[in-house]
Each structure stands twice: as C-alpha cells, then as structure tokens.
C-alpha cells in the first residue's frame, strides 16, 4: 500500500483508491484532472492571521476527478459514530480501500498537532487496536493510528470538517483513457481562475494578496511566529511546494508529452516560472517574520503582482486549448 512518495493528502488517497481499480495515474495527473489548482486570500476579523490557499476546497477535487473519469463515487456521511464505522468496515471487509475526511489533529502519527478538518486519508485495513492508513510521504506513507484516535478525528466538528465522511470509487468496465479528458479539465480550471466571482479568488486574489502582504507585520500580533508559519504552509503543508504550483507545473509537463499544443507548452513554461516565484514569496515572508524588516514584504508584494500577471497569462493560454 505504498503512497509512491506523494505530497498532497487528497491526491494520495485518490491514487490508492484508483490503483485498486486498476488505474495508475501520477499525483500531478490526479491533481490536474481534478481541476485542483485555485487561489484564495482568506482573512476575517475572527482569524488570527490571513490564510493563502492554492487549491479548490477539500473534496471538490475528488468530485471533479470522479466526474471527469466517469467513476462511481459513493459518499457516506452520518452523525452516528457507530454507523460511520459500519460505512468503513463494510467495504474494507470486502477488500476495498475507503477514503476518509477527518481532522488530522487526533491522528497518532501526526507530528504537528494542528486542527485541519479537510485532511483526507485512505484506509485499507484494521485490527482490534489500529486502523491501517495511507497518508502522504511526509506523514509516513503507510501508517497506523489507534481506532479511538481515528474515531476522534472523524467525529471532530469545526471549519472544513465533514460528518464522518467516507467514500469509495468504482471504475466502469474498461478503465477510462485520461487523455481525452485532459483538455476539458484544464479549461474548467482556467475559466474559474480567470473569471473569479469575488476579488479574493483566482488571479484577482493574487493581486489582492500583492496589496495586503506588505502590511502583514502590522496585521499580526506575533509576526515572528505567524509569518514563518504562513511560509511553511505555502511550501510544506501538503502543497507539494510553491502553493500547489509545482504539482500543476508537473501535470502540464505530463500533458505536453501526450498532446502536441503550443498553448500547453506556454502554460507549462509560465507555471514553471510561477512555481519558482511562489517559493521566493514564501522565503521573503519567512525572512520578514524572522527579521521584522518590512522590505522583505514590499519585495514579496512586487513578486505577487508579477505572479498575478504570469498566472493570468498562463491560464489565458490554457483556456484557448
């Protein structure tokens, strides 16, 4: 039950579920076919510090991928812990792995204890004490957690949580060829990015971030902690680096080997540029937190302004596929 050195929780889980169905796709391909790339700048009075997101909301990627590949997605939710366990044990007893959405805070193997209710894992077995799971490579790949810890993680309520959500995927006879599904998935992603309904999403959200980031030292009660943490979330927290842009760059590279298109090559070249710029932004934000010097944030704002243009241009090319 290896996770193939994966980085992002939802695509790791989808890979496990699809390999059971005889479909073996790379993590970037799963991310791209699920139209996973996005951007959100999220801030509110209730939040200690703003949040930058680089992907669609939890579970949307799974729904997108199932629709694109014509898979049967069966989702179970319940308020009853007992029924929730039956929903998982049933398929596993029949030899089928199950996806779970839960709060990573409770899982025994998680080294950093933070509440994140949008975490997704694959479960493939259990015994009297433990559940056997597959998580991302940084979390250990094939891991175990106590059944009580698992129950706590599934029962948690709060932002991004789902009620004991579990899901299975079934492929139709004759696995689908992803190739003809690539262009529609890319265009879906590009259209959402280019025409966001509100100003804190898509390319407009990156432009908004360019204006807000220079004020982050004042925005934070504890910049020495908040800014480096924001940088880690962009680079490390299951994003595959560069706020998911590395994953999308690699997806476009894979597509360009399957489909001969100048628009694709342009999109790939620009996303390679964007990925490097996002890593630079994360480094500048961390440096500002560590030094308290706002010149790093001014520079980050300038790079973000450039990023808004680069990604808009990339998505413009991809929308013409």
Automatic annotation (TrEMBL):
Entry protein name: BtrH N-terminal domain-containing protein
UniProt cross-references to InterPro entries, sorted A to Z: BtrH_N, DUF4872
Origin: domain of life: Bacteria
Domain (DUF4872) ranges: 149-318
A Pfam family recorded for this sequence: DUF4872
Species, as recorded: Streptomyces niveus (Streptomyces spheroides)
Sequence ranges assigned to domain Butirosin biosynthesis protein H N-terminal in this UniProt record: 8-136
């Amino acid at each position: 039950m290896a996770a193939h050195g994966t980085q992002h929780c939802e695509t790791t889980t989808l890979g496990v579920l699809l390999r059971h169905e005889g479909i073996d796709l790379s993590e970037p391909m799963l991310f791209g076919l699920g139209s996973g790339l996005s951007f959100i700048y999220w801030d509110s009075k209730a939040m200690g510090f703003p949040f930058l997101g680089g992907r669609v909301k939890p579970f949307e990627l799974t729904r997108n991928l199932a629709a694109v590949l014509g898979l049967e997605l069966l989702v179970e939710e319940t308020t009853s812990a007992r029924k929730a366990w039956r929903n998982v044990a049933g398929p596993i007893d029949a030899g089928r792995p199950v996806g779970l959405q839960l709060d990573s805070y409770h899982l025994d193997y998680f080294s950093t204890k933070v509440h994140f209710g949008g975490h997704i894992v694959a479960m493939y077995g259990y015994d009297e004490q433990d559940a056997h799971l597959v998580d991302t490579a940084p979390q250990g790949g094939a891991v175990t957690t106590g059944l009580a810890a698992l129950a706590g993680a599934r029962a948690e309520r709060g932002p991004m949580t789902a009620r004991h959500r579990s899901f299975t995927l079934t492929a139709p006879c004759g696995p689908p060829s992803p190739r003809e599904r690539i262009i529609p998935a890319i265009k879906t992603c590009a259209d959402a990015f280019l025409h966001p309904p509100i100003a804190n999403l898509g390319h407009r959200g990156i432009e908004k971030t360019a204006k807000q980031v220079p004020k982050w030292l004042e925005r934070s009660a504890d910049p020495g902690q908040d800014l480096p943490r924001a940088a880690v979330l962009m680079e490390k927290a299951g994003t595959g680096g560069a706020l998911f842009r590395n994953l999308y760059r690699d997806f476009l590279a894979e597509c360009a080997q399957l489909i001969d298109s100048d628009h694709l090559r342009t999109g790939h070249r620009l996303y390679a540029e964007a990925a490097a710029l996002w890593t630079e932004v994360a480094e500048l934000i961390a440096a500002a937190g560590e030094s308290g010097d706002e010149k790093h944030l001014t520079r980050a704002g300038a790079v973000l302004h450039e990023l808004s243009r680069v990604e808009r241009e990339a998505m413009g090319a991809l929308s013409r596929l």
